[in-house]
Amino acid sequence: MDLRAIILFSFLLFSTVQGLMFELQPNGRKCLREEVQKDVLVTGEYEVSEVPGQRTDVKVTDIKGHTLVSHEDKSKGKFAFTTDDYEVYEICFVSKVPPNLRGQKHEVEVTVKMGLEAKNYETLGEAARLKPLEVELKRLEDLSEAIVQDFAYMRQREEEMRDTNESTNSRVLYFSVFSMLCLIALATWQVLYLRRFFKAKKLIE
């Protein structure tokens, strides 16, 4: 595998593009959920088919309920935010129909980009007056940094999972020892009780 193939594979691995099209029922709600790491740029572009008298709201929230993006009554638009922490983020589309109207379905088309794919290097290059080769080097620099950060995150997760496994093994061991002691104590009590019972009945001496 040559260097270009490795770079292409790494770029596909550490950047994400999601393009979806779906139907939104009248007075319905549909959300897209995605786990995103910390300090990752997320951009999106959406377009909702217009239905007379109906409105569609778009809201982006994190798992804690914080609103990151809120677009009300918009048929198309863009949004962008940078994640503060590793958690689940939701992009929700909400249809609202007045009571006096018969609702119709909306067709929603949304494209979400994350990581390196969300950055517009052409615009960055024009703003900084960089040559095409310098823009490509900047892209590769960001890619290498993303790879390092991702491997560091994977190592951290591996350490957390190992600590969790060790803690679970210790708890299982303690529970097993406790269960054996309880069984031994119960068996001893049963033997003593039965011995006392049989002596009381004068079945044994």
**Sheet with most strands:** 4 strands, antiparallel
Radius of gyration, in angstroms, nearest whole number: 30 Å
Gross morphology is: elongated
Helicity range of the residues? 40-55%
Series of H and E elements: HEEEEEEEEHH
CATH topology descriptor of one domain: Jelly Rolls
Please count the helical segments: 3
The span between the termini is 86 Å
Kindly provide the name of the CATH class of one domain: Mainly Beta
CATH architecture of one domain: Sandwich
Mean pLDDT score: 82
Strand order of the largest sheet: 1-8-3-6
Oligomer: single chain
Membrane topology: Single-pass type I membrane protein
Subcellular location: Membrane
Protein name: GOLD domain-containing protein
Pfam family, one: EMP24_GP25L
Polypeptide structure, described:
- Pfam families: EMP24_GP25L.
- The chain crosses the membrane at residues 172-194.
- The chain has helices spanning 3-14, 121-128, 132-200, and strands spanning 15-24, 29-36, 41-48, 55-62, 67-71, 76-82, 87-96, 106-115.
- The strands form two sheets. The protein has a four-stranded antiparallel β-sheet with strand order 1-8-3-6. Strands 2-7-4-5 form a four-stranded antiparallel β-sheet, with no helix packed on it.
- It has 205 residues and is an alpha+beta fold.
- It is 43% helix and 32% strand.
- The chain contains three helices and eight strands.
